[in-house]
User: Which sequence fits this backbone?
């Protein structure tokens, strides 16, 4: 015979877990309105300044691996100024046939990088098939309006 009290306790567990999750609120606080002090001077600068920042440069060199020269050349090219949007610093530049998008999220110390050689992409970090941060959607749209349909956002 099944104990009715045990069934009631088991039935109430999902309700209690749901209430606890609601009381806890969202897992991450909203992104700050301004970049952390260490990065406050980067918005308005060329993307090369962001790439040279001590918190970003070493990661960028490791991520670019065999394409370091191409990434560096593209980032020294012309492009719009770095912006702070949705908790991310982002910018891009182009030099000749090379175009490079760079973004950095200071709270998680996450880097996003995309290199295009001519009309074809040659480097995606995170990989093209992995979810890209939703907050980068507007910045990526400015970099390449067609890329939004080729990436997953999550």
Assistant:
């Amino acid at each position: 015979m099944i104990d009715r009290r045990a069934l009631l306790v088991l039935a109430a567990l999902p309700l209690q877990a749901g209430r606890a999750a609601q009381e806890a609120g969202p897992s991450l606080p909203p992104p700050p309105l301004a970049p952390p002090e260490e990065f406050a001077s980067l918005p308005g600068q060329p993307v090369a300044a962001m790439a040279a920042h001590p918190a970003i440069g070493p990661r960028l060199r490791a991520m670019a691996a065999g394409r370091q020269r191409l990434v560096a050349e593209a980032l020294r090219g012309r492009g719009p100024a770095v912006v702070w949007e949705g908790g991310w610093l982002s910018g891009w530049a182009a030099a000749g046939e090379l175009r490079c998008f760079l973004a950095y999220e200071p709270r998680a110390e996450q880097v996003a990088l995309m290199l295009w050689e001519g009309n074809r992409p040659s480097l995606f970090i995170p990989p093209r098939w992995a979810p890209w941060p939703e907050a980068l959607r507007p910045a990526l749209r400015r970099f390449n309006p067609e890329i939004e349909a080729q990436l997953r956002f999550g």
Observations:
- The chain is about 30% helix and 25% strand.
- Strands lie at 83-85, 88-95, 98-105, 110-117, 120-125, 131-132, 152-153.
- Helices lie at 4-24, 47-52, 57-64, 68-75, 137-143.
